[in-house]
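The authors assume throughout that readers already know how a fold can be written as discrete tokens. In essence, backbone conformation is discretised, so a fold becomes a row of integers matching the chain in length. A single example would do more here than another paragraph of explanation. For illustration, here is how one protein appears when written out as sequence plus structure tokens:

…
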Amino acid sequence: MAPRNIVVGVGEKLFLECRTNNESKVRKWTHVNTSGSTQNVYKHPDAFNPSFRHFNTQVNADGSGSLYANSTRSEDAGIYGCEATVDGKDETFTAQVIVMGENYM
């Protein structure tokens, strides 16, 4: 199951979950920023891009994974992808993250 689209405010918690089946494991999280540039956020095992050090990840025993940040930044907006190997093929599931400014409420 792909992560869900989400709207968060600057400084709020961000949580994305990617559920897999057939004992597939989430291998990588990517980020396409609002300018269209793609970067790896996380690549198994435990390799974080320095620009995303404020994120953490967890891969569960069932292979599903989550990506989260305790304090979202405006530059965290964009499209996130989780990559997993499903039935021997790499597949990417995506979600859009919209980050609203400090005074959005």
About this structure: The beta strands are 6-9, 14-18, 26-32, 38-43, 47-48, 55-59, 65-69, 78-86, 89-100. The chain has one domain: 6-100. Residues 13 and 31 are 17 Å apart (CA to CA). The radius of gyration is 13 Å.
